[in-house]
Amino acid sequence: MLTINSIKNGVVIDHIKSGHGIRIFKYLGLDSVDYRVALIMNAESEKLGKKDIIKIENTIDIDFTVLGFIDPDITIDVIRNEKIDKKIKLQLPQTIENIIKCKNPRCITSVEDYVTHEFYLVDAEKGEYRCKYCDEIYENDK
C-alpha cells in the first residue's frame, strides 16, 4: 500500500497530466533538494482518469507561466498548518519568453543571440503559439 503523508507547510501541484509530473519535477530541480518531496505518478483521478501529483514540504518560488505552458490544467495548493491556504488554477499564458525557441532558421532569434524568444497565444484549444518576429507556429502538446 502506498502512503504519502500530508505536509505541514509547502506546495501541492495537482491535476498534472499523467506522465508530465517528471518533467515538472525536473524543471523545478526537485531531484537535488534537501527537503521532502513526493512525485506520485498515475494516481487515479475522476476528472482525468490518471494524474500525477507533486508534494513539496517547503515554500518555493514557482514560475506559474512555465507550469501553465507545460500543463494548463494544473492546480497549485499552498499549504499552511496542514490546510489549504490558497488554491491557484493555471491556464495557458498569453505570452511566453525564453521558454521555447523559434525553429525558423530565418528568424532573427536564430541569428542574433541577444534577441528574446517571444511567442503569443493564438489558439488556446490547440495550444498554438506564434513567434513574435516571424509568425512561426509552435503547437504545445498539452
UniProtKB/TrEMBL annotation:
Pfam families from the UniProt entry: PyrI, PyrI_C
SUPFAM superfamilies for this protein:
Aspartate carbamoyltransferase, Regulatory-chain, C-terminal domain, Aspartate carbamoyltransferase, Regulatory-chain, N-terminal domain
Which residues belong to any copy of the Aspartate carbamoyltransferase regulatory subunit N-terminal domain?
2-91
Keywords, A to Z?
Metal-binding, Pyrimidine biosynthesis, Zinc
Q: Aspartate carbamoyltransferase regulatory subunit C-terminal domain location, by residue?
A: 95-141
Q: Per its record, how is this protein called by name?
A: Aspartate carbamoyltransferase regulatory subunit
List the source organism: Clostridium oceanicum
